[in-house]
Design brief:
Number of domains: 1
Distance between the termini: 51 Å
Number of strands: 44
CATH topology: Maltoporin, Chain A
CATH architecture: Beta Barrel
Radius of gyration: 25 Å
CATH superfamily: TonB-dependent receptor, beta-barrel domain
Strand content: over 45%
Length: 737
């Protein structure tokens, strides 16, 4: 069936085509009305403005309008609009697990770095839980695939997600969007922008999300899942002189939302099957769930006994960007400070029984400073060189309550400090009219210190405060060759070496050996791609890649007194390969079609590991040689969109539909936790006056009411899953001045 699907998809792509650099909603393809032409999309993926079709790397771009059309308000939802990208919410909570082209890292703790770097206005968010705020007032999102480091402040093996917000304007402007949908969900976003003086411009934007609960307690009927989050961003742009520009970015957010709850995949026998045990059947209705707190745990985490799983998070940050134009070069400095105060309670057994209740109390602070010089790109040689410094402080308290199954509870506390300094650079040289050589290097010195890690069970010390540290000093880089035989074709090949930091497993443990650091992972990436514009109305992009891993970091387990407990290990050798095809076609002035298709496969070539399913069945540790086994991730992703414009008696109408497919997601925990493949489709109809400032949109998301899961897992005795949202429909009002 998969081969038939792939053949049909490739045939459709060949007919309707698509472009990786312009993987945006066709309604915002940047085409002038009345022209059957696909226009260039301008990106800053290489730290300067370029047409995406002129950049010899695999990247996708989503505009702010694309995000609105698809209902994307946070980073996680980008996976439905970007090929080969998966973002999994660990146990339905706030810890995002990023995977791009199969390169990912599964961790529900807060202390380890991701394989995919997330940046907002060039500022890195190196702690994954910091990425979970609202994204709003967006100009575009650029998703870069493959190792990054020669141009970006941080080193990543999987890629980078760069969010660029809208900037202050030279003329007064304001706008507002209000959206109301099923389950009483409300989202409002607005901005005001314009000059504040001869050389000063400002922009203030704010948003809020409220309501939307669609799940319920199977015992009491209470609802759960209401959003209650808001954010604000203020920008000041000051032209200090003919050569100096300054931009100040101040932002803050609060999130007091209830969690998206979990349901029971299989029956749960509470209290370990002992006296007074109750069997809760598996949930046929995926909107059903359950929760409950013990008095002791409620007092510890500062919640009431009737509290729903949810969070009480606040964040704020600031950055200042200075650009000084010198003779032939520009000097850019970015200074930033970001904070997050996290308080999140989760019920991972999805029941009133207290078998897997968890709490994260995190205090995160990140300071960074970047300085870089760039040539003015005149002549055959262009280059960028810089230095980057970052310091992270994380104070965390992780608590678990197992009182009804193990008769105890766990408490973990620690502090982690990370300090990194690096030098990076990349140069491009035009060897001839058609050939360009690109090379880049990065050297980094990073230290990670886990300080005072202590664990207790039932209030008794299991591991006294213990400190461990790790350091990495990798040399990474890139070599690439671009060949442009004509103005409408670019062929490129590249070799990259990327690195991801080592780290620590910070789960419940009474053994000091369990917190010993795992090693950094090294990725060698080989890529061959093309970007083609065979006609004014058609763009087709494609790429194929091969990744060779050394010391890939994977979540495994160690078998303890109560069964398997998570532990990160290094796989000596593994490999991933795949390909992507994307683009956009404009056959008529008022019709736009886009498509994307990606495939990936990975396998361990040298790996001896604990077999978690076999160990749970045997009641003891069972080890197995996993060499030759597949790396578990979805193999195929497919997506597309189509939009059609027409006019009726002074009004403009746009009908738009987009869709995506995610393949089966096999689990390393065993087949019972495999996430089945699913399709999602959305549709909308927008009406606006031909001459006017307002618009009205009716929309449906998850048009066919597909029942699907975002993640599946187990914790203690409970097999659980987080379901995706059912069909929602609503109306959106917009006004621009």
């Amino acid at each position: 069936m998969r081969h038939v699907f792939l053949t049909a998809s490739v045939s459709l792509l060949a007919l309707s085509a698509s472009t990786g650099a312009t993987a945006q909603s066709p309604s915002t393809a940047g085409v002038e009305p009345g022209a059957s032409t696909v226009s260039d999309v301008i990106v800053t993926a290489q730290r300067r403005e370029q047409a995406a079709q002129d950049v010899g790397i695999a990247l996708s771009v989503l505009s702010g309008a694309d995000l609105t059309d698809r209902g994307i308000t946070n980073i996680n939802a980008l996976q439905t609009a970007t090929p080969n990208l998966e973002i999994e919410p660990a146990f339905g909570g706030g810890a995002a697990q990023f995977r791009l082209r199969g390169v990912g890292f599964q961790d529900y703790a807060s202390n380890n770095s991701p394989t995919v770097g997330v940046y907002v206005n060039e500022v890195a968010y190196p702690v994954p839980v910091m990425t979970q705020g609202l994204i709003f007032d967006i100009d575009r999102v650029e998703v870069l695939r493959g190792p990054q480091g020669t141009l970006y402040g941080r080193n990543t093996t999987g890629g980078a997600i760069s969010v660029v917000t809208r900037q202050p304007t030279a003329v007064p402007a304001l706008g507002m969007t209000a959206e109301y949908s099923r389950f009483d969900a409300l989202r409002v976003e607005g901005f005001v922008s314009g000059p504040l003086g001869d050389r000063l411009q400002g922009r203030l934007a704010a948003t809020t999300e409220q309501g939307g609960a669609w799940q319920y307690n199977r015992d009491t009927g209470e609802s759960i899942g209401d959003a209650n989050r808001s954010a604000v961003r203020g920008l000041l742009a000051y032209q200090a002189g003919d050569r100096l520009d300054l931009t100040l970015d101040l932002h803050a957010g609060v999130d007091r939302s209830e969690n998206q709850a979990l349901y029971l995949l299989n029956p749960l026998v509470t209290r370990g099957g002992g006296a007074g045990s109750v069997t809760i059947p598996a949930d046929r209705d995926h909107a059903a769930t359950g929760w409950g707190l013990s008095p002791r745990f409620a007092a510890e985490i500062g919640r009431s006994l009737d509290a729903r799983p949810g969070r009480d998070n606040s964040s704020w940050g600031s950055s200042i960007r200075a650009v000084l134009e010198l003779d032939g070069v520009s000097l850019t400095g970015i200074t930033s400070y970001e904070t997050l105060d996290r308080s999140e309670y989760g019920d991972w057994d999805s029941s009133a029984s207290v078998e897997a209740d968890t709490f994260f109390g995190s205090d995160v602070k990140v300071f960074s400073q970047e300085m870089r010089l760039a040539s003015d790109a005149a002549g055959p040689l262009s280059w960028v060189a810089g230095v980057y410094y970052s310091k992270q402080d994380l104070d965390e308290r992780y608590s678990s309550d197992f009182i009804d199954i193990y008769g105890t509870y766990g408490q973990v506390t620690y502090r982690q400090q990370v300090e990194s300094i690096s030098a990076f650079g990349q140069a491009e040289y035009q060897l001839s009219d058609t050939v360009k050589l690109i090379g880049g290097l990065r050297y980094e010195d990073e230290s990670r210190d886990l300080q005072g890690f202590g664990a207790a069970f039932g209030g008794a010390v299991a591991l006294p405060p213990t400190s461990v540290s790790t350091r990495m000093t990798p040399l990474t880089g890139k070599v690439a060759l671009e060949y442009a035989p004509s103005h409408d074709l670019l062929i490129y090949g590249s070799f990259s070496r990327g690195a991801k930091s080592g780290g620590f497993t910070t789960y419940n443990t009474g053994q000091s050996s369990a917190i010993q650091p795992f090693r950094p992972e090294i990725l060698l990436a080989y890529e061959l791609g093309f970007k083609a514009d065979p006609s004014r109305s058609l763009q087709i992009n494609g790429a194929a890649y091969l990744y060779d891993y050394t010391d890939q970091q994977v979540l495994s387990a160690v078998y303890g007194a109560n069964g398997p407990v998570g532990l990160f290990v290094n796989v000596p050798a593994s490999r991933i390969y795949g390909a992507e095809l994307e683009g956009v076609w404009r056959p008529l002035p008022n019709l736009r079609i886009s498509q994307s298709l990606s495939y990936k496969h990975g396998e361990y070539t040298d790996f001896f590991d604990l077999d978690v399913p076999a160990s749970r069945t045997a009641g003891t540790a069972v080890y197995v040689d996993k060499s030759g086994r597949d790396i578990p991730f979805p193999a195929v992703s497919y997506g597309g969109a189509a939009a059609y414009d027409w006019g009726v008696e002074g009004f403009d109408l746009t009908a738009e539909a987009n869709y995506s497919y995610r393949d089966d997601y096999p689990s390393w925990l065993g087949v019972r936790y495999d996430v089945p493949a699913y399709w999602l489709a959305n549709a909308s109809l927008t009406v606006s006056p031909a001459v006017g400032r307002w618009s009205v949109t009716g929309f449906v998301r998850n048009l066919f009411d597909q029942e699907y899961d975002l993640t599946r897992n187990f914790f203690t005795s409970a097999d659980i899953a987080q379901p995706g949202r059912p069909r929602t429909y609503g109306i959106r009002l917009g006004y621009q001045y």
